[in-house]
């Protein structure tokens, strides 16, 4: 087993130990923070598929997070409260939106792709702002968390955390197999040289579109979990600034490494909580930390760890 899967497994084990540790020290809020870390780790993994392996910088990725969240609200309004049914509805909505927007966006490159994904993301944002039935710009509160097989097991924060952790483990495991399979190798080859991939008989557009759709579906599942954690949905979930935050998580952890995406999400959420409790100007401090990481380790925390391990072997 290579270092990356070992690091991912270590992160999952570390997260799994948070609820018993929180109970031991009498601080249940730690479980809430760990749940938020795991939710955004799933979203970061989904973005890393297209950004890290496909070199597709999307500034509209948070739209899928919002679609997942609103799928919970819409389904609950119509009496569908089962978590897996809501995930299915969210994934279907995200797949349709990604297929349409991706078919247009992927015909462009560079800054044009960034701006078109941003435009689609803002279209989704303003669409939900206009939905007065679901609170418009103010959003809407959920009556309760989703059910599992008709039971309200997820009302317990610890049980909900382990459900989110299981989803994170499945997302990582599935994406890890995908990027190391033929599909992932073609996607990576397209990132390196689209012309060469065409020359040997592949059609990069199909692979990029498939990755784009799959990425949106996984992010929508993260949106379902985010809505359940906060018991609230809002168009703010799909604002372009949220897409920027997901990109920051990848930069901090390491673009193009699934373990790095997980680590970046965990560190970003952890720093937000830590710095926000220390100063109201925490964004300035966070920006300085991000700047230091980018300057001293362009490959993120995973690159820094590799350099430290390589230095230790000499």
What spatial form do the alpha-carbon principal axes imply?
A: globular
Distance N terminus to C terminus? 22 Å
Structural class: mainly alpha
CATH class: Mainly Alpha
Q: Bin the helical content.
A: over 70%
Q: What Rg do the Cα atoms give?
A: 19 Å
Strand content: under 5%
Order of helices and strands: HHHHHHEHHHHEHHHH
Largest sheet: 2 strands, antiparallel
**Count of discrete alpha- or pi-helical segments spanning 4 or more residues:** 14
Roughly what is the average pLDDT, rounded to an integer? 91
Strand order, main sheet: write it out: 1-2
Low-pLDDT windows of residues: none
Question: How many distinct folded domains?
Answer: 1
Question: Any idea what the CATH architecture is?
Answer: Orthogonal Bundle
Count all strands and give the number.
2
CATH third-level topology? ABC transporter involved in vitamin B12 uptake, BtuC
Overall description:
The chain is mostly helical and 314 residues long. The protein has one domain: ABC transporter involved in vitamin B12 uptake, BtuC, CATH 1.10.3470. Helices cover 75% and strands 1% of the residues. The chain has a two-stranded antiparallel ribbon. Helix 5 crosses helix 6. The longest helix is centred in the C-terminal third of the chain and has 27 residues. The two termini are 22 Å apart. The model has no long low-confidence stretch (mean pLDDT 91).
